[in-house]
Amino acid sequence: MPISKQTSPEKQHQHSKHWQHFLFRVKPLLEKVYKDQKIVDRLSEQIFSLLQEHFSDSVAENLDKWSQNEVIVITYGDSICTPEEAPLVTLNRFLENLQDTITGVHILPFCPYSSDDGFSVIDYLQVNSEIGDWQGVEAIAQKFDLMADLVLNHISSKSVWFEQFKQGIKPGCDYFIEADPQEDLSEVVRPRSTPLLVEVDTAQGTKYVWATFSEDQIDLNYSNPDVVIEVLKIILFYLQKGAKYIRLDAVGFLWKSIGTSCMHLPQTHALIKLFREITQMLNPDVALITETNVPNKENLSYFGNRDEAHLIYNFSLPPLILNALLQGKSDHLKTWMMSMPPAPTGCAYFNFAASHDGIGLRPTEGLLLEDECNTLLKMMQEFGGKISMRTKPDGTESPYEINISWFDAMKGTAQGEDRWHIERFLCSQTIMMAVEGIPAFYIHSLLATSNDYAGLAKTGRNRSINRYKWDYTELKNKLNDFNSPQAIVMEEMSRRIKIRRRQPAFHPNATQYTLHPMNKALFAFWRQSIYRDQSIFCINNLSDRTQELLLSDINLICIDPWHDLLSGKVIEDISDRFILEPYQCAWITNQEF
């Protein structure tokens, strides 16, 4: 790259170092995506020129991005509202009460949008005026580690780019994927039952464009390198606004090649590697997280060779926890946990139970028995939930996700509703926050929010059942009523989270081993700190009955004093039996921090 003669020798040296690193790390990734060397050379220079003034002084990878202290809350910008102020301001005021509980906030898409509660972005560089402005986002980013959504597979049909496409105007006219409806597209993996191609009237006549998710969410064409430039501009902008995490939404669908599944293609993986390398050069503290709601083996592929996502959503965990608590047994959770490799160095699992979407069913493929899946669907419907479908390549439909608030999903077991609602709910969250990885709590789990039937009726979309908007005054009244589910859950969840944050054995990369007590109603695993100075034996009663654990079965050694972090119970004799009440969880440790 040419350097100005007015540039100081020190700057020239830094520039040269970055350019050499760029050629070594980034250019080969571009060559994997674009075969034309002229395109690669042009794109390399364009990207470097765009970003060179923003590169970090160090190009070294930061392997200390997180510790046991990290806890994320997931929320829409308007999950808590009051008529007197912008929702982002209200959210900020509410989150201030959680500053000793959580460390990060994932604000779900906060840009102007036309559908799908934000996931159909009209303008990536603006904040939706109905929830606030950039000042509101940055105020939250100053107090918490901010996760920003990059909805990079598709954009709104109301966007400037798509309007340009319809008019035949650059640059947007080249940013979308046209296809012939007569072509065989049966191999394409679909997450929805809507048509894959959308008919569009343009200045050049009728065209058909690719739309994986809906007719309002038009897929971007990454075979055009200019689209990559646009995405890098957005990433840079979000980092400048304070983002510490960039969430790559629906990233598995990124690259299309007719005659394939158009899912997890090599070019998609190469682009994620590219975004990781670029992000690391801009700010080594930033982490990329991939959202791929797919079977477990496919999901794990997004770690790459520790050169793709820093974090991947642990999508199999929610339905497996749900099934385990419905059935009152640990079989499938144990099988899954034993099969899960430790996250690679510099990477971690992103753990959650509830999310803004539903409880994905594809991640259970190969993990749950058919009759258990049927029971799961039946009971969730009995507890007020809905089932969303997708179209398979053979044209048939199959359940894709369960739409229900996680709190209501915990109403009962396969035998029906019972009196252990809150205890079962707390058990589910405690399992999630103890498993290897970084825990994330959907705000409606912290607030014990029930199914939003009014929201469902208003939008007609199943996912609205789990996207309630709290009135701030109503919420405060609930939290001040010590007998309300909201107050009970918030207080106990906060207590457990604070305990968790202090324990080195809960570092996202601390050792994890599955334990095998004879009692199937118990789900047990051992966490050991990176420096091996702390062990925590996580014992969880998945049933509505009192259970006993013979402590000798989990190999406690007598030279250490042991006690339960959650109940405070001291273990005097390791040959004793440990009693767990229905849905009780225990964190038995040799050392408390």
TrEMBL record:
* Pfam families per UniProt: Alpha-amylase
The highest taxon in the source lineage is Bacteria
Its Enzyme Commission number(s) read: 2.4.1.7
Q: Where is the Glycosyl hydrolase family 13 catalytic domain?
A: 70-417
Question: Which residues does the annotation say bind substrate?
Answer: D116, H154, R247, L248, D249, H356, D357, R463
State any GO BP term from the record.
carbohydrate metabolic process
Q: Record keywords: Transmembrane included?
A: no
GO MF terms on file? sucrose phosphorylase activity
Q: Mind telling me which Gene3D superfamilies this protein's record contains?
A: Glycosidases, Golgi alpha-mannosidase II, Oligo-1,6-glucosidase, Domain 2
First-level EC class: transferase
Provide this UniProt record's keywords sorted from A to Z: Glycosyltransferase, Transferase
The family annotation for this protein states:
Belongs to the glycosyl hydrolase 13 family. Sucrose phosphorylase subfamily.
* PANTHER family recorded: SUCROSE PHOSPHORYLASE
Q: What is this protein called?
A: Putative sucrose phosphorylase
> What is the species of this protein?
Hyella patelloides LEGE 07179
